[in-house]
Amino acid sequence: MSSSAEATGGVARAARHPSTDRPHRQIAAARPRISLFGALLLAPALILLTCFFLAPAVLTAVFAFTDMSTSTGIGKGQYVVTPNLLRELADAGLSDEVAEAVSVETYTVDDAGLEAAEAGGVDGRFLKNIADRLNGETYTAAREFERALRGLPDAPRSPRELKLAAEHFGQSVLNQRFDTSEELSATLAEVAPNVSEETRDRIVASSYTGAVWTTENFHTLATQRETARLVANTFLFVSATLGFFNLSLGLFLAIVLFYMPKPVNSVFSTLWLLPRITPVVLYAIMWKWFTWEGGFLPVLAEQVGLPSFNYMKGSVVTAWITMIMVNGFIGASFGLILFSGALRAIPVQQLWASEVDGATRWQQVRRIILPQLRWPILFVTAYQTLSLLSAYEQIWLTTNGGPGKTTTVWALEAFRTALSNYSGNLEYGLGAAMALVLVIVGLTLSILYLLLFRFGELVSKPRIEF
Amino acid sequence: MTISKTLTRGCLTAALLSTVAFTATAEDYTITVWAGGTNENSDYRYEAISMAADILEREAAVRGEDLSITVESQAWSGWDDFKQAFTLASEAENAPDIVVSGHEDIGPWSEAGLIRPIEDYVYFDVWPLNAIYPNLIDVASYNGQVWGIPQDAEARVFYWSIPALKAIGWSEDEIETLPSRVESGEFTLYDMLEAAKAMQDEGVVGDEMGFAPRVSNGPDYWQFYQSFGGEMVDPESGKLVVDTAALTGMYQFFVDAVDMGVVPATWLGSEWDMWHQNAAAGNYGAWHGGTWHYAQWTTQFGLENFFDTVQYSLIPSGGEGGRANSITHPLVYLVTSAASEDEAAIAAELIAIASEPRINALHAVKSAHLGIAEAETTVPLYAEDRWLTAASERLAPHTNAIPNNADFGIYWTAMFDGLEASWTGVSSVEDAVADVEAKVTQALGDNVIVR
Amino acid sequence: MTRNFSMLPLLLVIVLVSLPLMVMYGFLVLDTFTDAPPGELWPDRFTLRHWRFLFDPTEVGNVWAASFNSLVLACSMMAIVLSVSTTAAYAISRLHLPFRRFFLAGILVMHGFPAVTLIIGVFFVLNLTGLYDTMIGVILVKGSLMLPFGIWIMKGFYDAVPWEIEMAGVQDGAGRFTVWWRLILPQVRPGLVALGVFAFLDGWGEYVLPRILAPSSDIQVLSVFLNELIAGDQLGYDFNLFKSVGLFYTLPVILLYLIFQNRLMNIFGGGTKG
């Protein structure tokens, strides 16, 4: 069995393989119809990636510059004048007369209203009641008018029907939702004809309920104190997990297992792969059982007289250790596999020779093995930095960023801000801005890594052998 | 999060066909109900709608109409999942017809156009809606419109362990008068800390078990803000109020509690299950929760002799300028914009019927929530319940609600972030308060008053 | 080659390091059919009651419906990832296409991209296409997010197939499609198997996407089902029950892993998880 280390070890050694790429191109160039076939083969992937990868990425960038939230809705604003809006505008200098004129509601039973009601399909007998008994009356509150209507013999049973009928006799703009600014503007002009056009435009403009463009999100991120804490947490999380587990533990396991007989090797490799293939929800439950009160570690600690409490949530230090271990145990297998592959590629004669020369194991590891692992180590660092930066699922399901917010990392906070918080106030805009920051960091790093790993070679000769 | 789903099918149609010779065209409706924060004890949040559907069908049959209603319901035990699901489903236009949520959601949801004002579909001056407490109707109103029908009410409670109080030398009389001393402001939160500390020193409760607040975010924490004299909203202008002095007092209180060793610095984010178990087992000296926890402790966590072992009161005042208080957080039935005009009309009628005292009392008693109408307290089932009667007398008159304001969520999140930061010692109390002020003013500008 | 060195100390160290995992997985199995007294670690009696949930829906709900949904998700994932990656990777590996280098760089960048940060945008797209709260939506999204990985892996396999095989086929007058289908695909079968198993495992274990993009209880998958057990605050924590459901959930994973162990070892190296 050859190894996946070829994928990465191959990076270093790619130069040795002659590129097999060139001949295809020449042939392909000679037969242009092949491209069509290729485009056809590529199309499904392109479509899916565009729809569910690129489009969301672009949308994230767009949303980051809006104040989109639960109350603005996603992408569909309407125009509505509310009492609160008028109060806000009054604070900003709108005169009381205008506010009053706009918020007036009048119901008059006249011919125009009766006609409108008839055209609107209101029941004829009911209309006749209205015409007979209420003609000429004027009401200044919807409830008053409704009460009068309900007193009529042929009034509809359903409140909704009656209220809809009442609307034909009145003109009110307050709390009505309009889809376009023109509609609202026109109605405003009817309800309050004395209001100047300029004022009307101002009211209409501020009555928009949808999201608006803003750079406020980035301003908030740049100025709030929490940003520094989140960055520090993220940095600590990524570097500690990477340093202690993905690299050190992975390297340690790989080297130790390298010296072990095959059965031992395969038992431990399997064991360390389990966290990676265990569904994340179950994995989190196992850690809860392991660290919570009444769980394994606390019970054990109690029996030997050590402090026993909920290690996952009971203290900041243990919460951090738990969170790093939860992620690290998954990450260690990545390093383990890659490093093991690279180790197997070391010519055995070299090791034998060193042993004949009387090298100690430590010397063997340092002089022969570690130099061979330079590229894989670099690759693991690069690749895992990216995935750890955006890792939040395991944290969400275990410490959930607690106690308090002490173990909250950037990705988790972005997720919470945009999609999951107790008050139900989902701030998509701010969340997208946080995601965008991650995306940009991730992109920059990936491009750096591509340069570092000599993209040209990677493209011409990627190999993962089985 | 537990999502449960139930389906009730009206099976009156067949019966109708046999009794009514000629019927208008049959009307078939499927009404979907989603309920948040709903566990086994509070299943009447949606069961009531099913019962109402049955009644409405019968009423229609009596009138000679053929009406068939299928009620589909789904319940979430948590809030974040539920609100996320409802918000996203609404955006995707496959939201349910009726949603049962906290009244504070009316603000953002009405602005976003996710819900319909229920006042367009019902009369508030006819039975049973005219029986609902007016202050509850206010809680369901926003921007001059009534958006929902209150589904329940509650009070949040400060609980005290009677055995623990006795153990630190309190007399029967002192324990008996504690609630009134709390109410008058004579017994403060800091007195509570002293008592909790004494209990720990006495060894009747374990270390850091003297005081057990709520383990996660909730309206409860606004009570402590009020204890230190804070107001959430300015009654004059309706604007949100950030009272820095009250925030400081509140944050400092929890920091002091940690310093005194009566509560761990890492309390927030710990597990509900442990809290319930310890509360029900009498392992805490003082703790606070809601009236409804009584139902959970007695039915699920084996608490007996509640009235002999637990004293209950308002949340004490924080001292000078503060007041003892309790927050009620009524849930409301809301009709969504996803419902068609006809469905909305049916849904609103169902909600009105479900608000009948007798039906609502089923929910109130089963889940230990307070009733929504005076008449409900006379329903035998409700009147016989000692806890509800007691809580209604001692706590309910002093309750207030968090504001309906589309921006309140921003303030709330910032408040809780600050609380977490100061409680865990990540930042000082001053910094935490300054952060809240900065965040809220930056996001809301002139729409917030800073004191 | 390592006869010179003593193995015992190393073995001890590695056992020590692996102890947490051994304990966790050991007790995962043990606790599903035993009971331990409160506050004790070692079980003292055998019981099968933790497995009652399999046929008693009152215990935790309908686990079979959730399993079916998970199966649908995992299998569809596998189908999409396999078919789309296989075709696209062949095109990239063998055929002349404009912007080939650019496309490859894109795939590589996406491969390491924090894809899950895009979830708001994903919701918007699903909303537009009417796929929100549908299983198809989750499958498409999850499948697409895995494509860069799949294409990259499959491209590696195609690159390793000698060009002569294809040349021979083309010279015999077979069409390009026939060559690919008849001659090349069999050559990359190991890759197909590994990628397929990997896609299945990825879909089977997925939690965030179905949870957010398909909250309806009709299409609830096992991961969401299992997490609800522990997230509800009224149940009281019964870890033995959680573990039994969890073990039931993980059995297919372990089974697949044991069967395809050797092939998977390699592909996991390129996995996208942290």
Briefly say what this structure is.
The complex is a heterotrimer of chains A (466), B (451) and C (274). With 466 residues, chain A is mainly alpha-helical.
Sequence stretches where pLDDT stays below 50 over 5 or more residues of chain C? 269-274
Shape annotation of chain B:
globular
Main sheet: strand order of chain C: 1-2
What is the total tally of β strands of chain C?
A: 2
Tell me the number of helical segments of chain C per DSSP (H or I, 4 or more residues long). Answer: 12
Strand content of chain C: under 5%
CATH topology of the largest domain in chain B: D-Maltodextrin-Binding Protein, domain 2
Q: Rg of chain B to the nearest angstrom?
A: 23 Å
What is the average of the pLDDT values of chain B? 87
Under the CATH scheme, which architecture of the largest domain in chain B would be assigned?
A: 3-Layer(aba) Sandwich
Average pLDDT of chain C works out at 82
Question: What oligomeric state do the depicted chains represent?
Answer: heterotrimer
**Number of DSSP helical runs of chain B:** 19
Profile the largest sheet of chain C: 2 strands, antiparallel
CA(first)-CA(last) distance of chain B: 38 Å
Tell me which protein chains meet in the greatest interface and how many residues each side has: A-C, 130 and 119 residues
Structural summary, described in words:
- The complex is a heterotrimer of chains A (466), B (451) and C (274).
- Helix content of chain A is 68%, strand content 2%.
- Chain A has 466 residues and is an all-alpha fold.
- In chain A, strands 3-2-4 form a three-stranded antiparallel β-sheet. A two-stranded antiparallel sheet of chain A has the order 1-5.
- Chain B is of the alpha/beta class and 451 residues long.
- Chain B has two domains: 4-154 and 329-400, D-Maltodextrin-Binding Protein, domain 2 (3-Layer(aba) Sandwich); 156-327 and 407-450, D-Maltodextrin-Binding Protein, domain 2 (3-Layer(aba) Sandwich).
- Chain B has helices spanning 12-19, 44-63, 80-91, 106-111, 134-139, 162-167, 172-184, 189-202, 220-227, 244-259, 272-281, 293-299, 306-309, 341-354, 357-367, 380-383, 386-394, 408-423, 429-444, and strands at 4-9, 27-35, 67-75, 98-102, 115-116, 141-142, 145-146, 148-150, 156-161, 211-212, 240-242, 286-290, 310-313, 326-327, 331-336, 399-400, 448-450.
- In chain B, strands 1, 2, 3, 4, 5, 8 and 15 form a seven-stranded mixed β-sheet that branches.
- Chain B is globular, with a radius of gyration of 23 Å.
- With 274 residues, chain C is mainly alpha-helical.
- Chain C has a single domain (64-268), classed as MetI-like fold.
- Chain C has helices at residues 8-30, 57-60, 63-94, 100-111, 119-129, 135-160, 163-171, 176-187, 189-205, 208-213, 222-231, 239-268, and strands spanning 34-35, 45-46.
- A two-stranded antiparallel sheet of chain C has the order 1-2.
- In chain C, helix 6 packs antiparallel against helix 9 (189-205) and helix 11 (222-231) packs antiparallel against helix 12.
- The model of chain C is unreliable at 269-274 (pLDDT under 50).
- Chains in contact: A-B, A-C, B-C.
- The B-C interface holds B 1-5, 39-41, 74, 77-78, 81, 84-85, 88-89, 91-92, 94, 271-273, 276-277, 296, 300-301 and C 61, 123, 126-127, 130, 132-133, 211-212, 215-218, 220, 227-229, 231-237.
